[in-house]
Specification:
Number of strands: 0
Distance between the termini: 13 Å
Helix content: 25-40%
Strand content: under 5%
Radius of gyration: 14 Å
Oligomer: single chain
Length: 73
């Protein structure tokens, strides 16, 4: 929610990112960090292919996590 409301400085605020289109879950912080580094090293095309495999319509996966009344623009 802090990212959607642009309360935190950084990438999401700078580039007006308001949708979550991909995420993975793990209980292992080291695995999470390694996976993030792996994905960050990929070309944009490979990242887009990964998103479209899991979320072909690029739907906001966080929609159900928060109140519908909030304005994110």
């Amino acid at each position: 929610m802090e990212h959607k409301k642009k309360e935190l400085p950084g990438f999401t605020q700078k580039y007006n990112i308001t949708q979550l289109v991909f995420y993975e879950e793990t209980d292992d912080i080291n695995a999470a960090i390694a996976r993030e580094k792996q994905i960050k090293g990929w070309l944009r095309k490979k990242k887009i292919d990964l998103i479209e495999t899991m979320n072909p319509k690029w739907a906001d996966l966080s929609t159900e996590w928060f109140d519908d009344d909030l304005d994110y623009s």
